[in-house]
Write a structure and sequence with these properties.
Length: 243
């Protein structure tokens, strides 16, 4: 699960942000001031994936907090929030190492969409060490054999034909074996952000794949749900259980 640290001294705003981020499936921590934020950041394991930083904080300013943060972590995305609108404040924020900047009052959908983009980019960067595997035209896992060229899936003596999207989705899961894939990421990478697809229809696609590949679709071993986020494909569940 991706983790967000919210640094905001106004309790109502902090709690509102936490509520909305949790609805999106993120794990959220709150800090009321810069020093607390820096120590939460250095103690976090696994590390945070994004910091949402109010620039007007008591004691140490958000600018100074970001400057100190950048001495120890050049990579973590920082989204700054501020009530100020002067251009020089914006420039100063970018100088301190802020990645993106929004002025209060902000529109929630825009904030959530920026957060999603920053977190997705972060995840891709992290996964570059965790290289994806190339998917062959014919792949096998468990009792399943998939022939992508023929849009066919064989499981025991059963043969299923795949639609184009079922095929693309299964291929994507195979490519990201063992990686947690959010619904928003599936929507952007498999459906290329089509507005036709909803979270519920992604779930329906997954249910259809489960019926084809799982021994017990109600208790999936290969295509598991990650609560609040999406799915993870596990090519070899026995190996995972041994670890
Ligand atoms: Ca403030």
């Amino acid at each position: 699960m991706m983790k967000i640290l919210v640094v905001e001294d106004e309790e109502n705003i902090a709690k509102g942000l936490r509520f909305n981020f949790e609805q999106e499936g993120y794990q959220v921590s709150l800090a009321e001031d810069g020093n607390t934020a820096l120590s939460l950041h250095s103690d976090a394991s696994p590390p945070f994936d994004l910091i949402v930083l109010d620039l007007m904080l008591p004691e140490m300013s958000g600018y100074e907090t970001c400057r100190q943060l950048r001495r120890v972590d050049t990579d973590i995305p920082v989204l700054a929030l501020t009530a100020r609108t002067l251009a020089e404040d914006k420039a100063q924020a970018f100088d301190c190492g802020v990645d993106q900047y929004m002025t209060k009052p902000f529109a929630l959908p825009e904030l959530l969409s920026r957060v999603r983009n920053l977190v997705d980019r972060r995840r891709r960067t992290l996964e570059q060490g965790h290289a994806t595997r190339p998917v062959e035209d014919s792949e096998s896992f468990g009792s399943v054999r998939v022939d992508f060229g023929r849009f066919e899936l064989h499981n025991g003596d059963q043969v299923h034909s795949l639609t184009t999207k079922e095929k693309e989705l299964l291929r994507y899961f195979l490519q990201y074996d063992d990686v947690v894939l959010s619904r928003s990421r599936l929507q952007s990478d498999v459906w290329r952000d089509s507005t036709e697809i909803t979270s519920r229809s992604i779930d329906n696609f997954v249910m259809r794949l489960r019926k084809m590949i799982e021994v017990d679709p109600g208790n999936p071993q290969h295509l598991v749900s990650i609560r609040g986020t999406g799915y993870r494909f596990i090519r070899d569940p026995d190996k995972n259980n041994r670890n």
